[in-house]
């Protein structure tokens, strides 16, 4: 059993691991890119994505907690081999995302200290690696993502208030938009709870021993906390970006997020962007590597025994690929969109599991959560298909 104080720390750590896993370079790029395109209407896309995020995480975390198994093992129980397919999707998507995370960390140190992004990426990767070579890696990771999460929100709030956004218009368009973008919604959901991010917090709780029906209420609260942290950061960044573009100022397409901070608060804003970008990227490196590798640890005793070193290898591979080829801003948006396409598959698997006795025993999954989940699977499938046919090709014109 996990003691109360340690339990609270792990629950908060799991929430922030999920949140900071989603708040990476792609998050910053996606938010500023779509704000420039949709202006105040982007608030509606954020609002819808948050509702979907809550439905996804409450379903997934509860099913993982009750079954006391990781997602890949649940999938294999439904259909032999399905877990391997799910793991393949997660590891491939996670690796693609992590290349962007490493690049973002390098860019952050480039802004702060003026060193090359490649050197910054290597330094950042070594810091992330350091977390996993320490004996108490789990506790260090929980504390690291918690502190970094608060720093990111505080600094972004400062820039938002400095920029003075049109709050009234943002509130109105959040609920009554002039324009709705399916690509924006799919990308936001994919970048927040798509791919590996869906399972980051749930797998962390399993590793920490917080599982079983007795923990359902606390697991649910932890899931909502994680989404809330992400939502606050998304809205604050959106308002900061809106303040800039509403003045008719153009963002640099090669680095739109940096433009927002620089135009809003001058050179100080640019340095703040560097800190936020670095914190967002490094915490995402940690969360992405941890969760991606958690999808293969149960397939081999050797991997499970050397879990932390496999995570280290994952980070090093991501770093080598970035230093070799880099990662442009549009690809960060693309990966978020593709992760959104994976979501209906992973959530569908979990919903089926919720009603299989051999997986959850006599546990009765709430009907409203099941219906909520089914609606999300259908809606994300339709919006994902629409984005694949219409939105993504437009992105690369």
Task: Give a short overview.
This is Divalent metal cation transporter. It is a multi-pass membrane protein. 82% of the residues lie in helices and 0% in strands.
- Average pLDDT, rounded to a whole number, is 85
Tell me the domain tally: 1
Number of helix segments? 17
CATH topology: Amino acid/polyamine transporter I
Order of helices and strands: HHHHHHHHHHHHHHHHH
Please, what is the oligomeric state?
single chain
Membrane topology: Multi-pass membrane protein
InterPro entries: NRAMP_fam (IPR001046)
Keywords: Membrane, Transmembrane, Transmembrane helix
Subcellular location: Membrane
Can you characterise this structure?
82% of the residues lie in helices and 0% in strands. With 397 residues, it is mainly α. It has a single domain (4-395), classed as Amino acid/polyamine transporter I, CATH 1.20.1740.10. The longest helix is centred in the C-terminal third of the chain and has 39 residues, at 256-294. 57% of the residues are buried. The mean pLDDT is 85.
Notable characteristics:
single chain; 397 residues; mainly alpha; Amino acid/polyamine transporter I
How are the secondary structure elements laid out?
Layout: H1 4-22, H2 25-38, H3 42-67, H4 71-78, H5 82-113, H6 117-133, H7 137-163, H8 167-175, H9 182-193, H10 197-207, H11 216-245, H12 256-294, H13 301-305, H14 307-325, H15 329-353, H16 357-360, H17 367-395
Helix pairs in contact: 1-7, 1-10, 1-11, 1-12, 2-9, 2-11, 2-12, 2-15, 3-8, 3-9, 3-10, 3-11, 3-15, 3-17, 4-5, 4-15, 5-6, 5-12, 5-14, 5-15, 6-12, 6-14, 7-11, 7-12, 9-15, 9-17, 10-12, 11-12, 12-14, 15-17
């Amino acid at each position: 059993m996990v003691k109360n104080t340690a339990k609270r720390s792990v629950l908060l750590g799991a929430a922030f691991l999920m949140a900071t896993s989603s708040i990476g370079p792609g998050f910053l790029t996606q938010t500023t890119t779509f704000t420039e395109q949709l202006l105040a209407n982007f608030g509606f896309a954020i609002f819808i994505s948050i509702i979907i995020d809550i439905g996804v995480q409450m379903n997934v975390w509860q099913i993982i907690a009750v079954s006391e198994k990781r997602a890949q093992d649940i999938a294999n129980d439904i259909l032999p081999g399905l877990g391997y397919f799910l793991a393949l999707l997660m590891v491939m998507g996670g690796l693609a995302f992590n290349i962007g995370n490493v690049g973002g960390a390098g860019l952050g140190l480039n802004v702060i200290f003026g060193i090359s992004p490649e050197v910054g990426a290597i330094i950042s990767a070594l810091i992330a690696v350091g977390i996993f070579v320490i004996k108490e890696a789990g506790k260090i990771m929980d504390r690291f993502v918690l502190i970094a999460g608060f720093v990111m929100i505080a600094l972004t709030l400062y820039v938002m208030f400095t920029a003075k956004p049109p709050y009234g218009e943002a509130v109105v368009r959040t609920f009554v938009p002039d324009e709705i973008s399916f690509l924006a919604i799919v990308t936001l959901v994919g970048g927040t709870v798509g791919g590996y991010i869906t399972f980051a917090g749930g797998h962390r709780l399993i590793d920490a021993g917080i599982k079983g029906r007795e923990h359902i209420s606390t697991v649910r609260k932890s899931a909502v906390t994680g989404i809330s942290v992400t939502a606050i950061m998304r809205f604050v960044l959106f308002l900061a970006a809106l303040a800039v573009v509403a003045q008719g100022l153009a963002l640099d397409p090669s680095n739109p997020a940096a433009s927002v901070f620089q135009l809003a608060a001058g050179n100080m804003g640019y340095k703040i962007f560097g800190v936020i970008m670095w914190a967002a990227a490094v915490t995402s490196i940690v969360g992405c590597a941890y969760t991606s590798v958690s999808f293969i640890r149960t397939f081999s005793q050797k991997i499970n025994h050397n879990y932390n070193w496999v995570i280290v290898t994952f980070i090093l591979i991501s770093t080598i690929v970035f230093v070799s080829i880099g990662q442009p801003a549009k690809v960060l948006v693309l990966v978020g969109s593709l992760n959104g396409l994976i979501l209906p598959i992973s959530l569908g698997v979990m919903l089926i599991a919720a009603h299989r006795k051999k997986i959850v025993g006599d546990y009765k999954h709430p009907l409203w959560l099941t219906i909520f989940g089914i609606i999300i699977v259908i809606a994300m499938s339709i919006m994902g298909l629409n984005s694949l046919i219409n939105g993504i090709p437009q992105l690369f014109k």
